[in-house]
## 1
Amino acid sequence: MKNYELISNPKLDEETISTQPIFEGNIITLQVDTVRMPDGNTATREVIKHPGAVAVLALNQNKMLVVEQYRQPMHRTEVEIPAGKLDKGEDPLAAAHRELQEETGLHSGDMRHLKSFYTSPGFADEIIHMYVTENAQPGDMSLDEDEFLEVSELTLEEAYQYIADGRIADAKTIMAVYAWHLYTLTGQWH
């Protein structure tokens, strides 16, 4: 995995002058930063800090494993690939194995990293590390006490139909479907 924090352009970088904490929750914190812009003027930036997350594209006999669960911010259920937040100091690969097992009961020995990406870099530092596995073995689910979901499998065609119908609407799952489609065309994970 690349270290995205090291990428810089001195002509565009902003210097943080001060940080004012606003809210600290179980998953996110909100802060307002005062920054010095490249032209010397100052501005404020509202920033959500997030510990990061993992997502797993799990394929079994040419079908993608998905979970459907209610998402309060959208007030609806979403069909998504298994995913979850990183615990403090947790290795992303270990978290991917943990989340796959917790949400689906599956265990995988051959998980590989596909890509890491920021979800909303204009106001949040959340990064998702996406993994793929093609040979997961069944086991027992161990959902969190506040987690209710249904597990199912979709063909590539069904996944595209779910996207068209709006049942799949989150970026990580759409990205996983596109990566899977590219894999079917090239035989390579890009």
Note: Residues 4-49 form one domain.
## 2
Amino acid sequence: MDRVEDLSSTAAVGDPDELQRLWVPHRMVYVADHRQPDRTDCPFCAAPARSDEDALIVARGRTAYVLLNLFPYNTGHMLVCPYRHVSGYDEATAEEVAEIGELTQIAMRVAREVMGCDGFNIGMNQGEIAGAGVAAHLHQHIVPRWASDANFFPIIAKTKAMPQLLGDVRERVAAAWPVDPGPQA
């Protein structure tokens, strides 16, 4: 009997198929109770109005804040965003640029302390053509890296294995964030 035609209660349970599945239960917040954000809403403008835990915010500054990326490239992938809705780095004020830089440095120190990473990828994608997922709101990526973080999953299966849950990482990073970092020499 053809497998597609066999609809008995045990026919497909556990049978392998050609589909790859990536379980993402954290996305239920967008599906449950019709809470899917409007495509015109800016997630980086909305985040500061939410609780730190719900928005994955690890630290708040005067003109910018730090949050975990909901779709991380690696464990501990953080974003530094100005509160003000600007799209380009050249549109940021001198104060915003300075604080984005300061928060980036602190994020690196905290990530090394909490996660023991070996290095970082840091950067900004300016505009959709350059790969910005949210091109309308300036944000800088801070991606912790380890000598052993690469494996065959991204190459063969186009899947990234994430060893820690976002909420757990947010909790650890936020707890280690200095209350008043002061000037760093």
Note: The CA atoms of residues 47 and 55 lie 5 Å apart.
## 3
Amino acid sequence: MRYRLIALDVDGTLLDDQHELAPETIDTIREVVTQGTEIVLCTGRAPLSTIPLMERMGLTGYVISHNGAATVDAATREIVHQYQVDVRDLEPYIDYCRDNGIHFDVNTAFGLYVDQLEGLKLEVRSMYEAFLMEPLQLPLWADLSEPLVKFTAFASMERLDEVYRDWSRWEQPFNMLRSGDFFIDLMHKQASKGEALHQLALRRGIASDEIMAIGNYYNDLSMLTYAGKGIAMANSPEEVRLAADEVTLSNNEQGVRHALIKHCLS
């Protein structure tokens, strides 16, 4: 069948391990678009680090950012849907991070704020540079002019395993998920890639069985199971591969291109 909408995760899926986008994959995506299929990047990234990829591929349309917490029109940068986080619920998590030396940031749809801008560690600054983000100093809650949509903790995989175990024992007001080996995200309970994709599909008049989703990590599970065709990358954890309808090649082998040729251009 012809899929009307294809949701693509970015890191570990569309991009290889060096955060590069293969020219051959771009060409294949453009060919799919000429058939009338809509491409939506569905990522844990912020809009400002996702829209440039859309522009590089010559695409317009929507990006589902912050793991589903904010959906943005890539051309106009209008926020078409977002889930707001209650800042009061974040306080215990912020205290935990401060007490245990865990770096964290809080995000509006377009802004990223850190606790201590001065003295950021080199690996933290390098991480933000890799994601095309410029951190700002976290102001007082009352001075934030836009809703918060996501809280992210950043540390080594081993430290985050400990953090995740600790926070899992708490009464959880958030959708808490591992969005990568080095990240834990906290969002509104209803916010997820799958739910954001569902809301966008309703807006576009597209049924779930007309949607293909391709992803590689735990934060992609909701969209892989919502879409009519959910495809996991070969570099996905076993749980993600088992939840998908099929598995394509890895992100370092242009697995997205392989899946698009198989299902959209054959």
Note: The mean pLDDT is 95.
## 4
Amino acid sequence: MIGRKFVAGRKGMVGLVAFAYAMAMGLSGCSLTTPTRAEVEPEPVKATLGADDLIEDGVLTVAMDMTDAPQAMTDQEGKPSGYYADIARLLAERMGLDLRVVSSADVTGSLSKGKADLYIGARSGEDDVVESGVLVQNASSIFAKSADGSREVLTVSATTLQGAVVAVQSDSAAQDAMDSAGIDTTLKTKSNVNECFEALADGEVDYVACDSTAGAYLARAYPGTVFVGTIAPMVSYDAIAASGTDLADQAMGILEDALSDGTLEAIFRLWYGDLPFSLDDLALDGVTFEQEAPESEEAPASEGESGEPAQSDSLNSLG
């Protein structure tokens, strides 16, 4: 899913660092000693990017929308956290640079106005920018709880949902997706997606409809709760870099290597558990929609019951 395409524009883990654990044989018997992480010196990476490539020499400045949990958020100490933040750390580590994260929802502005060297989490097909490769896909989806508490994916279809009770965040894109699907269900609205999953765990509802990423993030804490399929168009999000620069080439190479050596999937699993990396062709049987909105269009912004644009799912507890 990583493609060699880049942007026009300005110039251009929970770290997943491999520690080399040394084991030494004792003078007597077969005792083994293993150094602590603090004692292991990671192999230094010599930076090849300089002031001509970066906003600040020696620092990779990465922009992301810090309100887009669990992709990007701040932890209890106010530090950057989430899937995108871990990818930013990976890039900085493998480039031999320090990392600075700035919060912005303006992809083109962050790059063209010199606020960031790289933007992580832009929607594929954003005007004036070209993606470095898909990092995550998101769509309104259905989650269910297995009877035996296993993580086995359940078979759910539009027919299965007929007559079911489904928890959904009020005025969310997932609520709109359920309304548009034409399935005869009873929707039980909640103020946030956490409450939806609590209702599923308590047996108050049969299913949860929510963003696939938010749902997968929370499902980790509820044994037997699994993603079963999408009910709305899928949208892809990417890392963005400036065109024709050493920074762009290095970022591309690192993402390709991280995909092939399993590092990217390891970071993905840390945040999203068993969610499939690709949501292509995972729509529930009997639910028909265009798999992905045309690249020239903006992300869907349909209106909820309140008359305001439908929102992505909000989380009220992170960890």
Note: The CA atoms of residues 168 and 189 lie 5 Å apart.
